[in-house]
Write a structure and sequence with these properties.
The structure is a homotetramer of 338-residue chains. With 338 residues, chain A is an alpha/beta fold. Chain A is built from ten helices and 14 strands. Chains A, B, C, D: Its EC number is 2.5.1.54.
């Protein structure tokens, strides 16, 4: 950590700063520059709380040198981590596609959905029994029973299931239904109590990026999970909020190579929520793979026009099958398989 | 709701659209324009799910006419709602200032803080026993015991207490400790399970705006609370996330008059988290009152430099007292009291 | 255009609205809904100025139905337009890569740069003689003489040249030096006088997206050029400004398929300015092609570490050659050539 | 400037970095920390071009210590600068309100507008003869003749005039018509050739903030003007672009105290363009003054409903007069006059 001293700071104020640094257990090293005095802190800068040094009168600016995340960082572990879901590897040369409906509706819909997901060649299935909806007046998900529909349909086609957890009180049900991958949604990326709880489980977690979360905040959210013991974390970029409103979100493809450099954990992309339109799924999915993503989360539905939510962004079984073919070619072009 | 039809849509596709509208329980009214055909929907457009019509091949664009929120809307209730906290009114001519530390630290710190809050003329006190922190390695709050320190200190000075709830499992403790106002923080604005639960309580709620929440999403989050029975809601603007990084957030003063027009509920402002620096609190607090805010949430600490979190944004007792004097003059200039 | 009438509007206010619509040369059609009265406008809604109807007391909201752009729209011309630069087609199945240094430095540097661009298999060359720099104290470009260095070096390798125009007073020099493609930079996307002047030329134009320009504003900027007679326009996405500051900009890949749907004109991508780091150029360039871009603008330099500006984002000759090979595979995977 | 060295950098790479720093005319000072090596640069860090050090293999991160602006900085000149316009001071205790129509329409309209501006107690007048419009098909301004209408009307009421310059080729006409204050609009904040030219004039300049310009970029744009000799610069905050679309822009009131700290130059606010609605002008104008603004730019029109542009945001003469009374009270509450 480096502290820039105000040019007008008095000797007493500088002394107060140096004492405070020592109190925190670090060693200050003063460098007198032409226009500014700079103090370097020797020791573990993570001991310094937010704003503590900034509150002193001598301080113009505080610059951290170390990254605030540790367990999830590439520095901590140099090689790529593979997160396995019932033998299916995320983070290796093989790209994984998780497909399925936005929400679980009926047992029959889930059976048809699972059949289509398997037929298209996807290896995992997604679907939500509990739905975070902007309006209290719209469909909120089928609930516990939905997990049964999902489990049964997926088992028939031997597909591990991925589903979103929003409430700590539902963890027992999730364990009982043997949910294979727990998804933490964009609105809960900084629901720290939820992160701590999934950190205590031995279940892989897909951590979606918050709507306006920085890369650093996202890595810190994963660090919460890892710090509580669960290192099986998969990052999922799903588009960020910007000034542009012609499409739902802006898919941040730059986040893919940047994350792959900052962390050893796998990174997947959700092109369906990013674009918010079925017609945008194919170009965004291809871009994600070309940029180095380890997998995709895609919404598909046996009959998109009849879907109970997000009807305009789900792919039909035919569209999903066609897309898988196209993605395979892009994957091979960047030296991977699908 | 109005649907713009694609210029290239076939007669069969248009027919499919009209049938779907009728299935949803609404009546379509077709207008043939020079360049576009437009279909108006007569009936309750809230019956139409997101994306349902957009998924049809005939549809170019769907435009809602009605606002998606109801109970919290100015249309539903024309006159200003007063939310009373132990007799202290939010939303009337009197402006309320809630002050206190970022986090509860010790019994002694809370006593000193309460004394200073009362001496400065503020009528309520804030403080967090559970802290949402970006890093798992920083101070996470004192926990349940902190509520005791808070309750005791505030009672000694007859100050109602405002504190943040992050976890549904803590509601019982909050009720037991007689928390006067529950704060829902920015990271939980769309934690829908939490919103539903506080919606079932008979305790006033301060609902902070999500970091990148639109006015509409914020009103919908309040609608969740209201729809579950609790109408005692106070909106708190606390700065939004933008491209500017020289200060922590951008205080959105425009939100104040816009909310006052859209909803009958009170609107307060948190200038401390908005600016993130003690020096910015006074100008932002004055701006908020000048723009029509009904109250303020201000961080203060008996000794800011010693604060366990956000040390650089808390006001000292002297600064708080001076600010209250300055705010009183601005309040009077806009025809209010403080 | 559709006008939503306030529920509380009086009959006289509604009448005033209808009269104003007729004065503007359009025909109003009133529909009485359950909760709102809606007025449709029959005729050319482009006749209605911004804010004219909004200023009337009866009006709650005005919703345009037509797109404000015409000549550049896909509706105006259904088939893809090919913009040819000395026989090299933009917008067809072949993807074009334009490479070269950020700024023209010396005759020798440009000769080496041109040799490397040609050797790598790129078909056009970029370079700036006039540089838009944030600081008045940094290198502002070599100026007129730089165009000579550029012209000469590019001619030796038969490469058409692309260079940025910032000042209307430089158009004569650009014509004299036979600049093949004029680039309008991100800071000038809404420099309307400049757009009008290049609209009067018969030279292809690359129009970069403004740092926070919406798709609609970008299309309107192109419409300025087209409306003055020049239809040879190429859009260049170069990253947008968001809350994320870990990388320079966020490359908006979604803009590619959206633009290809909205306009018949070609769309290229600048991965160098988007990411701002040499290491990000390859993944972003691949993503752009996978998403459907018609070309790329890439910074390269004979010796990046010695570059006079943006030294950390230019590719070396070896990196450029290697990237071209990788891009060729991605291009083929999406059915195109490079 | 401080350079963080990569933990994996070799001794040779570190040596290369130190040599490069010496070549640039600075002295490197190496500090070996527990987890990182840090190199401080002694000398004028402004000599180091963007990206030069970042391009070296040893470098993890480069952190500037000095601010890149100089002449406009508070460090350069500690006391507030007063910019006088024909004897009217900007930047002192008196707050200045500049009012008038969005665009010059006719001689008669300008006469009525000037009478209303003077009657309301405003001391300067605004109006545009050349209008930057998003669409090439909407009214582009009356042109040169408009400046005559404006000059004549303003002279009759002894009001200095403020008008926007978009094109360097119009400077002679502006000088000939004796424009009192030249406004640089939001879309031209980084039109560097225009900034250089107004930097060579002896006419006060109002520099509007770019739609998504950071405080630092805005200060650097002013530095361009100052570096070319013209120090009579007034900053004008006019709202920034964010994710929120319910109002035109988000007025950034935080920018006011931050700028007042960073620069010695005056800061005014344009509440009309910020909110984009007449009803928002009063609350935003009051907030601006409460936050410390030195003046306001307000749109007013003799008959807003008939205005040729931005009809929904102009105040009527009565509204302007009433607002001036309200603003006077707020100004006095913060110790200023109006």
């Amino acid at each position: 950590m480096i502290v820039i001293v105000k040019p007008e700071a008095s000797a007493a104020q500088l002394e107060q700063l140096l004492n405070r640094i020592r109190e925190l257990g670090l060693t200050p090293m003063v460098s007198q520059g032409a226009e500014r005095t700079v103090v370097g802190l020797i020791g573990d800068e993570r001991l310094v709380g937010d704003g503590v040094l900034e509150s002193l009168p001598a301080v113009e600016q505080v610059m951290p040198i170390l990254k605030p995340y540790k367990l999830v960082s590439r520095e901590f572990k140099k090689t790529d981590s593979i997160v396995e879901v019932r033998g299916i590897p995320f983070g290796g040369p093989e790209i994984q596609v998780i497909a399925g409906p936005c929400s679980v509706e009926t047992a029959e819909q889930m059976r048809q959905a699972a059949a289509a997901v398997r037929a298209a060649g996807c290896r995992l299935m997604r679907g939500g029994a509990f739905k975070p909806r902007t309006s209290p007046y719209t469909f909120q998900g089928v609930g516990d029973e939905g997990l049964d529909f999902f489990r049964e349909a997926a088992d028939a086609y031997d597909l591990p299931i991925v589903t979103e957890l929003m409430d700590v009180r539902k963890i027992d049900v999730f364990l009982e239904k043997r949910v294979d991958v727990i998804q933490i949604g964009t609105r809960n990326m900084q629901n720290f109590d939820l992160l701590k709880e999934v950190g205590r489980l031995n279940v892989p977690v897909i951590l979606k990026r918050g709507m306006s979360a920085t890369i650093k905040e996202w890595l810190m959210a994963a660090e919460y999970i890892a710090a509580h013991g669960n290192h099986r974390i998969i990052f999922a970029e799903r588009g960020i909020r910007t000034f542009e409103t012609q499409y739902r979100n802006v898919l941040d493809v730059t986040a893919i190579p940047v994350l792959k450099k900052e962390t050893h954990l796998p990174v997947i992309v959700d092109p369906s929520h990013a674009g918010g339109k079925a017609a945008l799924v194919a170009p965004l999915a291809k871009a994600a793979i070309a940029a180095g993503a380890d997998g995709l989360l895609i919404e598909s539905h046996p009959c998109p026009e009849e879907a109970w939510c997000d009807a305009d962004q789900a792919l039909s079984p035919e569209q999903l099958t066609q897309l898988m073919g196209e993605l395979r070619r892009v994957a091979e072009a960047v030296g991977r398989t699908l």
